[in-house]
Amino acid sequence: MGTEGGPASGYFGAVRRGWSLRCPRCGQGKLFRGLLRMEPRCGACGFQFERGPGYFLGSTYINYGLTAGFTTVTYVVSHFGFGVSNRVLVPILFTFCAIFPLVFFRYARSLWLSLDCYFDRTGAEEELSGETRGSPEAKD
Ligand SMILES: [Zn+2]
Asked: What range does the domain containing 21 cover?
């Protein structure tokens, strides 16, 4: 019970589940209990969200990448393409760089978790089947 949703199917299914801020394994449990506070486990299937110490450091790559990418493209297109002056652009882009990572924080973590579970299913599937590392079949 509770795992009937199953792991997200396909890359876009994993991305969709990441955007929903729900458990990457069952799609039911919420990742966050408050604005920034994460649940340690899924309330529906028991999936542990923090896969290891410092696990969510990887989500900063998503957050930083989107912030830097959008800022760079916007600056280049606006300044060199449309001739918008730095006096106008810099305060706007500076404000964007300060606010966007905070607003996107939850989504970056959720996308990181769901994409990690999509590309590396071993952890999620081991937990799902109740097995741990070094299963009896691995012995000679
Ligand atoms: Zn779950």
From this structure: 10-128
